[in-house]
């Protein structure tokens, strides 16, 4: 909320605009103080962007599924406005980005970034993607500025942001907000955005990011930001009609008879992402007994700088995708992964991977959504297929997490074929249980 000073609104002492459209009466109060000459042109017309996001909240489950977060994992959205004082421009942004991608388990958190269009067009899309390439390879999805950024924010479990309007929208929607940067000097102290900066929690350097995120999400009280929602729009849900009346009046045209409406925000498929950096995997055989399928707990970290803490994990291994930019790490892989982009038969391709990487014990080739084939050096080949979730929707879990469960099973001294005998497997990632069918297949398939 800036730009209501006379230098922005007047030319030779007269208002530049025929109509100065405001979203709330509090802005009119500040306009009268800052530039009384322009106050006569003010029109209260609500906020169409906020109205679309409000309406999208009823589609929240579908929005989350489209983003690959429909299984209960936490959707964390990184948001930055533009400028040196923004989150992206802050001194702590590089370390925040590393901690975000390296310390949050990839199967328990879904990460997206919504950046101001001025960042994309000021630096160029190529430069932005180059800056954030490593994070993208670790599972961070960059949302195009003309893409479903509103849907992404409306679906979020938490927004890490700054003094930009998108972070304010998140709070006004009732979502948990964590401020990674804030520039009160860039704001009118009387503005609602400045008030958000005085009340929302800030990132605390030295405290683990996951601890802070979980505390903000779990401790969020419904209604905490109702005051900010009330200041977001003068007429929630009514901006389409108000704006159409204004525009037709300015043009001297009669309004159409049909009701004014905004285009609704529909889900747009954007996930789940591929993680192509080397992955460190902590595993535990949680159950191996009569009365149910084997159960393996899997926690995967995207190329952590240090060995991740996992007091409940019995074993660890390294899984590396053949598309990794760190090709030297492939020689250290316990489990080699391939999406089979070339279309080769899965069995022969898995055998080829084991021949190319003699120190790997297991190879996995993705064969479709939620499916992969794993092959060990004894020639046992299993197809692992994710079953739908109990609610009937597809489970977005990466099938390579199931491959890591198979690796842990084999590394514990159990034969890989025993999983096929059981016919099923449960892979647990954090609080989420994934049901997997297991079938032994002929080597050449």
Short note summarizing the structure:
The protein is an alpha/beta fold and 445 residues long. Helix content is 33%, strand content 22%.
- Judged by helices, strands and strand pairing, the structural class is alpha/beta
Mean pLDDT: 94
Assembly state here? single chain
Alpha-carbon distance between the termini? 61 Å
Largest sheet: 9 strands, mixed, barrel
Rg over CA atoms: 26 Å
Biggest sheet: strand arrangement: 10-11-17-18-16-15-14-13-12
Report the total helices. 18
The shape, in one word, is elongated
Classify the helix fraction into a percent range.
Answer: 25-40%
Low-confidence stretches: none
Strand coverage percent: 15-25%
How many strands appear in the DSSP assignment?
A: 18
């Amino acid at each position: 909320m800036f730009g209501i000073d006379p230098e922005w609104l007047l030319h030779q002492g007269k208002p530049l605009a025929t109509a100065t459209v405001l979203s709330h009466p509090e802005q009119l109060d500040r306009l009268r103080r800052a530039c009384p000459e322009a106050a006569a042109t003010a029109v209260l017309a609500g906020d169409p962007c906020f109205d679309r996001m409000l309406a999208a909240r009823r589609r929240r489950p579908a929005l989350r599924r489209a983003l690959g977060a429909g299984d209960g994992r936490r959707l964390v959205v990184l948001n930055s406005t533009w400028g040196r004082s923004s989150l992206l421009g802050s001194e702590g942004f590089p370390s925040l980005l590393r901690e975000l991608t390296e310390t949050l388990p990839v199967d328990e958190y879904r990460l997206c970034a919504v950046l101001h269009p001025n960042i994309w067009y000021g630096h160029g899309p190529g430069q932005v993607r180059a800056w954030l390439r490593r994070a993208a390879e670790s599972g961070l999805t960059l949302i195009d500025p003309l893409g479903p950024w509103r849907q992404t924010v409306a679906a979020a479990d938490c927004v890490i942001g700054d003094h930009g309007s998108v972070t304010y929208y998140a709070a006004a929607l009732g979502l948990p907000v964590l401020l990674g940067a804030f520039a009160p000097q860039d704001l009118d102290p009387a503005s609602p955005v400045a008030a958000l900066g005085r009340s929302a929690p800030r990132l605390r350097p030295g405290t683990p990011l996951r601890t802070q995120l979980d505390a903000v999400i779990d401790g969020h009280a419904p209604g905490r930001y109702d005051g900010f929602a009330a200041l977001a729009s003068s007429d929630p849900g009514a901006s389409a009609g108000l704006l159409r009346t204004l525009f037709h009046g300015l043009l001297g045209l009669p309004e159409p008879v049909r009701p004014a409406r905004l285009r609704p925000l529909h889900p747009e498929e954007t996930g789940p992402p591929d993680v192509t950096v080397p992955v460190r995997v902590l595993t535990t055989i949680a159950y191996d007994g009569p009365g149910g399928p084997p159960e393996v707990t899997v926690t995967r970290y995207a190329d952590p700088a240090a060995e991740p803490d996992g007091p409940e994990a019995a074993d660890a291994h390294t899984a590396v995708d053949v598309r990794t930019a760190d090709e030297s790490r492939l020689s250290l892989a316990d489990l080699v992964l391939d999406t089979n982009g070339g279309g080769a038969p899965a069995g022969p391709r898995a055998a080829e991977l084991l021949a190319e990487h003699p120190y790997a014990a297991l190879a996995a080739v993705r064969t479709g959504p939620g499916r992969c084939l794993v092959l060990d050096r004894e020639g046992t080949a299993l197809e692992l297929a994710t079953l739908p979730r109990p609610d009937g929707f597809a489970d977005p879990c990466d099938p390579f997490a199931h491959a890591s469960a198979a690796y842990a099973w084999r590394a514990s001294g159990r034969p890989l074929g025993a999983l096929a005998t059981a016919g099923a497997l449960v892979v647990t990632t954090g609080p989420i249980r994934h049901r997997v069918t297991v079938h032994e297949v002929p080597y050449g398939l």
